[in-house]
Design goal:
The structure holds two protein chains of two kinds.
Chain A lengths: L2 H10 L2 E3 L4 H21 L4 H23 L1 E3 L5 H13 L5 H19 L6 H22 L1
Antiparallel strand pairs in A: 1-2
Helix pairs in contact in A: 2-3, 2-6, 3-4, 3-5, 3-6, 4-5, 5-6
Chain B lengths: L14 H12 L7 H8 L3 H13 L3 E6 L2 E6 L6 H23 L4 E7 H7 L9 E8 L3 H15 L2 E7 L1 H6 L3 H8 L3 E2 L9
Parallel strand pairs in B: 4-5
Antiparallel strand pairs in B: 1-2, 3-4, 3-6
Helix pairs in contact in B: 1-3, 1-4, 4-6
Classes of the chains: A mainly alpha, B alpha+beta.
């Protein structure tokens, strides 16, 4: 994601520039890793919960990416949605497009489980975990 | 075959004309000879030919000869093309667009439009539905279905909401929601990628 693209997000009011914070980024990434482990361990007994935690793992990894770069998403524009837009801008075209698109769509599944009472299957939580691992891995590579 | 004409966007001179326009405009990648279109749209062949001639004279559609067959396409040079396409996709697009989108997802046994849009399709008078409700029966990947939902929402310019029900839940219908859905009008979605409207 070029600085010009970041500028466009900032101009749109979606992102705010803040001082880059490597430590905060590491903390977020560490939380993302713990979420991955938690999602894996609960996938068979609580697929719906596991799905949400896997999504959160991916989302927090993307937030870590922003923190390291000195960016923060503005919550009033729908923080999760905008985090998906940021992920699309920084992670597409790097051989993990299918995981990035899935991450964006996982948000909708989480909404359906939280507000519509829908449940997910074990196969769905396993799929979510696969995508989340790819997102976390890509952010780890960027922050290494 | 429906007995009542659709009350969604009741601007067309006949239900046959609106079905033909919707089919030609919304599925230009699947041209078909008139005889096949007549069967697909449940319109008599003579009437369909007259409608096609009239629309072609008005510059809204154009024909291409493939051997002895006449294939119809939207006339994109018409000054009304963009506006007419926009009206048709908003009013009649769901069945035609949702089928091909869901057809590519494994694990879907059946799908229906339900709620306000389906009711309008069956001729029930009411406000223009703001969103499109789709019931999917099966055990597909929820992420794949959410992707289809997002793409359809983007294409149609109105929110598409998909509810996934397992075949067992659908058959049992022991929730108030499913009972309500099953008691109200449903529009089957053609999962063979040629969703009819």
């Amino acid at each position: 994601m070029s600085e010009a693209e970041v500028d466009a997000f900032v101009a749109e009011g979606v992102l705010v520039r803040v001082p880059p914070d490597r430590k905060a980024a590491e903390r977020e990434l560490s939380t993302a890793r713990m979420h991955l482990a938690g999602a894996a361990s609960s996938a068979s007994v609580d697929p719906t919960g596991s799905f949400t935690v896997a999504y959160d793992a991916a989302r927090k990894a993307v937030v870590a990416h922003m923190r390291a770069r000195g960016l923060r998403v503005r919550s009033r524009f729908g923080a999760h949605y905008q985090t998906g837009r940021y992920a699309t801008a920084v992670l597409m075209g790097r051989g993990i497009d299918v995981h990035v698109v899935a991450f964006v769509d996982m948000r909708e599944v989480c909404n359906d489980t939280e507000y519509e009472g829908q449940m997910v299957a074990v196969s769905d939580s396993a799929e979510a975990l696969l995508h989340a691992r790819a997102i976390v891995g890509a952010v780890e590579a960027d922050l290494a | 075959m429906r007995t009542e004409p659709s009350l969604l966007l009741p601007l067309f001179r006949s239900d046959g004309q609106r079905r033909l326009l919707a089919r030609v405009y919304l599925a230009p990648d699947r041209p078909a000879p008139l005889s096949e279109l007549a069967r697909e749209l449940a319109v008599d062949r003579g009437g369909l030919k007259r409608e096609a001639d009239r629309l072609e004279r008005a510059g809204l559609i154009r024909s291409e000869r493939v051997g002895r067959q006449r294939h119809l396409y939207p006339d994109e040079s018409s000054p009304y093309f963009r506006d007419l396409y926009s009206l048709l996709i908003k009013a009649f697009g769901p069945a035609m667009l949702i089928g091909p989108e869901l057809a590519g997802i494994d694990g879907i046994d059946a799908a229906y439009l339900y709620g306000s849009w389906a009711a309008r399709y069956h001729g029930e008078v009411g406000l223009d539905p703001a969103d499109i409700d789709v019931m999917v029966i099966g055990t597909p990947s929820r992420i794949a279905v959410a992707g289809a939902e997002r793409r359809l929402t983007e294409r149609m310019g109105r929110e598409v909401n998909v509810w996934i029900s397992s075949p067992e839940e659908w058959e049992a219908a022991d929730s108030g929601f499913l009972q309500d859905v099953r008691q109200r009008p449903l529009v089957p979605v053609d999962l063979r990628s040629n969703g009819r409207s």
